[in-house]
Design brief:
heterodimer, A: mainly beta, 11 strands, 58% strand, B: mainly beta, 4-stranded antiparallel beta sheet
Chain lengths: 111, 116
């Protein structure tokens, strides 16, 4: 079983809808939680990161971490066709530098 | 350069040949990471360096894989006696700092390796 699980999708939503993405993890040592966006044929690019539990908002994006449930979420409000991409969650343990990724969720926002 | 540069972008090699993949990180970035990404999967950690020191190589699949960063800048990932299962996208990332600095890692476009 993988340390970080993520539904592969695809997740198809109409333009303007809220996109809801999530990951579960098994190792309580993870302390830093990131969301990356990856367009086709491109490298992952960092969207947001949070430390430990709580919420963080950045424009149309909100990241949530629930360490008690080992569950993290990313919400995209007012979704746009340009948000169509694969979204990867990633995590780091406090004492390390190794990013552990989920498998990614492919999102398609239809105009 | 402006970003992490990897070369070649595409590499097709015959089974049993050795290949060397190059990563040129963002100037001044201390940490450098190698990941492998299969189609439809998330990146899988291979190894990382702080300056020229290889800090963690636990993700290297076997002893055919090795990496170096002799002067703390450019890094080379070498795969000896390639096998078809080595076919994947190999991605390099760099970050300015160690530790929490990983949260600001920047990825290159990757090298697509195909072993025939």
């Amino acid at each position: 079983q993988k340390e970080v699980e993520q539904d592969p999708g695809p997740l198809s939503v109409p333009e303007g809808a809220i996109v809801s993405l999530n990951c579960t993890y098994s190792n309580s040592a993870f302390q830093y939680f990131m969301w990356y966006r990856q367009y086709s044929r491109k490298g992952p690019e960092l969207l947001m990161y949070t430390y430990s539990s709580g919420n963080k908002e950045d424009g149309r994006f909100t990241a949530q971490v629930d360490k008690s449930s080992k569950y993290i979420s990313l919400f995209i409000r007012d979704s746009q066709p340009s948000d169509s991409a694969t979204y990867l969650c990633a995590m780091i343990k406090a004492a390390g530098n190794k990013l552990t990724f989920g498998g990614g969720t492919r999102v398609l926002v239809k105009p | 350069g402006a970003g992490v540069s990897q070369s070649p972008r595409y590499k097709v090699t015959k089974r049993g040949q050795d290949v060397a993949l190059r990563c040129d990180p963002i100037s001044g970035h201390v940490s450098l990471y190698w990941y492998r990404q299969a189609l439809g999967q998330g990146p899988e950690f291979l190894t990382y360096f702080n300056y020229e020191a290889q800090q963690d190589k636990s993700g290297l699949p076997n002893d055919r894989f090795s990496a170096e960063r002799p002067e703390g800048s450019i890094s080379t990932l070498t795969i000896q006696r390639t096998e078809q299962r080595d076919s994947a996208m190999y991605r390099c990332a760099s970050s300015l700092e160690t530790g929490v600095g990983i949260t600001e890692a920047f990825f290159g476009q990757g090298t697509r390796l195909t072993v025939v």
